[in-house]
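=== RUN LOG ===
request id: a7f3
mode: sequence -> structure
chains: 1
length: 86
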Amino acid sequence: MTTVTVSSKGQIVLPAFIREKVPVKQGDVLLVNLVGDKIVIEPLIKPERKDWERILKETAGTWKDISPDYVDELRAMSATRLDENQ
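=== RESULT ===
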């Protein structure tokens, strides 16, 4: 187990052996979660292009039978929820 110190700006430095093992490099995005009273930090896994292409292929045509008016209604409901949560 290794300790790190929190800076005045709330920053920490991940030890090199952890950055190498995970691996994490400069510019990577990490997810920070609170689990109970513990801070959990993990790398954000970015899907690769092939993953997006597979998802698009699997979901192609999903909305073909949905009317444009219904889609507009869903968008309006979503926008209302976003406004309420801000």
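=== NOTES ===
Helices lie at 16-21, 49-59, 68-84.
The radius of gyration is 21 Å.
=== END ===
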